[in-house]
Amino acid sequence: MNLDALRSLGVLAGVALVCSILVSVSTTTLRPIQERNEALQRYRNVVSLTGLVDAEADDDTIFEVVAQLDARVVDLGTGEFAADIDPASVDARLAVNDPDSSTAIPAAEDIARLGRRANHEVVYLVWQDQDLSRIIFPIEGQGMWSTIYGFLALESDLNTIAAVSFYEQAETAGLGDQIEDAEWQAQWQGRKMYDDEGNVQFRVSGGIVSPSSATAAYEVDGLTGATITGNGVTNLVHYWFSPHGYGAFLSKISGEPPKR
Amino acid sequence: MTIRSTLFGPVFEDNPVLLQVLGVCSALAITNSLYTSLIMGVSLTAVCTFSNGVISALRHIIPSSLRIIIQMTVIATGVVVVDQVLQAFAPDAARTLSVFIGLIVTNCIVLGRAEAFAAKNSVGMSLLDGIGNGLGYTAVLVAVGTIRELFGAGTLLGVTIWPTATDGGLFVPNQLMLLPPSAFFIIGFFIWGLRAWKREQMEAPEYNEVKVRPEQQPDLVGKNAS
């Protein structure tokens, strides 16, 4: 090996060493701040549905409310609380890729086009003193281009929608992405999920909801130019509140309300 | 070569996007709002300045056969550091820009300046060249971002400038402005305008239309065949 080749290798090794040190230092020193950001982003969506603080609350308030949140793991198959599982260890998005912790959705029921759903989901119970005031459910499903992720909060009657938020989607810019619009989401408040027979009736309308129509209590306005995204949202709500979604859990807790 | 021409030349005289038509991919993708355009511009300026400085400092010891590998290593390092800093201190922007920060590695402007300028010039001038080219890129992004956000949403940096019709105002947003192809047209108009203003930037035609009289034709065919 001649001297030139040795020198070249030396320069390469030196550059590689210095660069890897720079990369390692930047990732390790910034990691705690990044994790805090990620947690904040995740919690902000849940906290905004509790009705306790508004979505623009400062970081410390968010963490305070999160500390009081009552996160429970629900076994979707039986509808029971799985008290032996730590909510922090449940990641429904990862679980979908693991055959042991997820279930294939029968094609006839898979209106949200998910393919599989996790066996366990984390729901959040919101307490006002000793009374249950809201339950926050994670929901997801296919829109036009992307999987839409969100949360939906039901009042303690387990029928009235208290709030909704969609926090991750890649629908058409300016059209489908209006599902993140706060004013549109505000329309969901007070709408009913189930009719008297217990079927999911809620839907995103094809246009403006007429207040006099018989189904007005179950509908929110459609989004102009986003019919397919709107249908996707309707379908994912229908799936998650059907017996294969949270249905078993909801009928369980309407029989025996959870205790604080 | 003066400090002034190195720093400000790339903004109007030799703009990386408008004259050299480099870095157009990211200029189309992330300019739908002014904020992301600014963050992207600052990120690229930081990476370009860093890589130019390092490459220039090492220019006498980098073996010429390995220079592209070393340039890519240095650029990639700069990009990772910028990406990490953004994720820590501007998480919203990092989420919106997602892969496009990582793709600065493949941005022709950065590698182009390292190869064409930093490998041959002093550290000071290379740093200025990095800042200058970053400024040239940022200027285009900010201009495109301003137009797209204003006409696409009626806002600038998220602040409402023209209340939209859905919010009770008069302005009807142009949805096309929120989609990447609109940046194509806007950058096209910029290039047209700049070349109309500075005619020396016009490219020589790639071929000249030859007007031939019938009797010259055999001659021409003979030339082409040779």
Automatic annotation (TrEMBL), chain A:
Q: Which reaction does it catalyse?
A: a ubiquinone + n Na(+)(in) + NADH + H(+) = a ubiquinol + n Na(+)(out) + NAD(+)
InterPro entries in the record: FMN-bd, NqrC
Q: Which GO terms describe its cellular component?
A: plasma membrane
Query: What's one Pfam family the UniProt record gives for this protein?
Result: FMN_bind
Q: Which GO terms describe its molecular function?
A: FMN binding; oxidoreductase activity, acting on NAD(P)H, quinone or similar compound as acceptor
NCBIfam families from the entry? nqrC, PRK05346.1-5
Any idea what job this protein has?
A: NQR complex catalyzes the reduction of ubiquinone-1 to ubiquinol by two successive reactions, coupled with the transport of Na(+) ions from the cytoplasm to the periplasm. NqrA to NqrE are probably involved in the second step, the conversion of ubisemiquinone to ubiquinol.
Q: What is this protein called?
A: Na(+)-translocating NADH-quinone reductase subunit C
UniProt source species: Ruegeria denitrificans
UniProtKB/TrEMBL annotation, chain B:
Cellular compartment(s): Endomembrane system
Q: How does it sit in the membrane?
A: Multi-pass membrane protein
> What domain of life is recorded for the organism?
Bacteria
Could you list this entry's UniProt keywords, alphabetically sorted.
Answer: Cell inner membrane, Cell membrane, Ion transport, Membrane, NAD, Nitrogen fixation, Oxidoreductase, Sodium, Sodium transport, Translocase, Transmembrane, Transmembrane helix, Transport, Ubiquinone
Q: What is its main location?
A: membrane
Q: Which residues form a coiled coil?
A: none
A cellular component term from Gene Ontology for this protein is: endomembrane system
Q: Which GO terms describe its biological process?
A: sodium ion transport
EC number(s) recorded for this UniProt protein = 1.6.5.-
The UniProt entry, under InterPro entries, shows: NqrD, NqrDE/RnfAE
Q: Where are the transmembrane segments?
A: 20-47, 68-90, 96-114, 135-162, 174-194
- State one molecular function term (GO): oxidoreductase activity, acting on NAD(P)H, quinone or similar compound as acceptor
First-tier enzyme category under EC:
oxidoreductase
Q: Does the keyword Translocase apply?
A: yes
Which NCBIfam families does this entry report, sorted A to Z?
nqrD, PRK09292.1, PRK12405.1
Q: What is this protein called?
A: Na(+)-translocating NADH-quinone reductase subunit D
- The protein's gene is named nqrD_1
